[in-house]
Amino acid sequence: MSRPGRHFLQIPGPTNVPDRVLRAMGGPTMDHRGPAFAELGKRALEGMKRIVKTEAGQVVIYPSSGTGAWEAALVNTLSHGDRVMMFETGHFAWLWDKLARRLGLAPRVIGSDWRRAADPDAIEAALRADSTHEIKAVCVVQNETSTGCASRIDEIRAAIDAAGHPALLMVDTISSLASIDMRMDAWGVDVIVAGSQKGLMLPPGLSFNAISPKALAAHQTAGLQRAYWDWSDMLGPNANGFFPYTPATNLLYGLVEAIDMLEEEGLSNVFARHDRLASAARRAVQAWGLEVLCLEPRHYSSSLTAVLMPEGHSADGFRAVVLEKFDMSLGSGLSKVADKVFRIGHLGDFNDLMLMGTLSGVEMGLGLAGVPHQRGGVDAAMRYLGETVPTAL
Ligand SMILES: *Cc1c(COP(=O)(O)O)cnc(C)c1O
Description:
binds pyridoxal-5'-phosphate; 2 domains; alpha/beta; Aspartate Aminotransferase, domain 1; globular; Aspartate Aminotransferase, domain 2; 14 strands
């Protein structure tokens, strides 16, 4: 059935793809071994280096979902039985841990109640205790998309340094890259894992690793079996803008367009926009009298807000009402918090009035679904946005 107007895709990824990116992807598919492709390949790879803020590192691009880049990060740097340290901030950190176990690694997991970010002190203590340097990598999800808690990668770097530990630092930035700052070189991140369909404003289908010189050195001796994901196979042809197998050409058209858009706006403005919209969303939640899942204000995510449903009310029932009545998709609660939370995605190609439409749909949906709440969330968000219009506009 046709529904008039635009569907509101307010899940925390995939996100709304801007018309400019959709149009760019509509170009003819090209010869991926021809000279025109080499230009595109170089632009995409160089552009991604600027987005992750690395000069020393290299980027590889896979035609896969983000999960593929998780696997690539591990199989390219580690050997069977290696200890890796993971911090279970939520569903995605848990999935990465599961994937590592399947590959024959031995994760040491620091658990949590899924309401907070990775704790640098706990990481430092665990690394200090590892005097023989059994732990080969520390794996952290920068923005835990299932809970809306963002970990401070600068502080985790400082914890690793304070412990004087040589482990690699691997960071999943799938729902944070191009929404929340990432400074690969400055923060000493060794492997970045990223995906196309969240802050990068593309459809699903591309994933990324960014690789530090230290990670590349580990790659030379890493023993895990790998074939499709092998960095060496990629980095050779990438040097001339080519790929070892057929790249996702049309998604790469979209990628260079998306990078242009991010750079036209300016990355620091992009981050400030996300911070401000997230603040406005939280003001609405507070006015409704509902609870944000993330407990620590300094770890609030700027990509999404996870909202706890009042006891005895179904988050999925509420989301179904919002979808049916207002044609808006909200994010579901995942695994441990299934049906207990709903998530408002406010990342990517997103602005003030899109947020106001989103919050209006949530507030009306709460009423229709009979969820106890106070009115005025939309008004609180609107007031905040009105008072904080960026001066550059
Ligand atoms: C979305 C997401 C993933 C999974 O990515 P896929 O593209 O679905 O494979 C992993 N980690 C985080 C933090 C995510 O947000």
